[in-house]
Fold this protein.
Amino acid sequence: MTGETDLAVLLRGMRPVLDPVVYGFSTLQRDATLPPALRPLCLFEEEEGTTLIAPQSDLVAAGLAHRPGWARITLTVHSSLEAVGLTAAIAAALTDAGISANVVAAYYHDHVFVPWDRRHDALTALEALGQN
């Protein structure tokens, strides 16, 4: 099943949803074993190590150093991996609001991680983007 590629359709239909979970970003050496109870939302292999995004409480329980305090906003529109401009539009809207954004493009949806204390501002900015 392929996703939407038309930017106007993507923006009108993105319907951002705020996840109530507080997330953290952490990193492990590439050859490290994940703690057994840790079920990260996302893993990404980089040259320097394995980046993982997981609920902050899970990272604390596993004793992993991490960058705490991130909220996840999911764009519920099914975007194509080939869609052009969605990430740029999101980044521009959040830049205009002075909000840092870390975007993860998954197979079905895009997920935007923003500072926890700015989550409601970010949601408002993304909702406004979808209405313009």
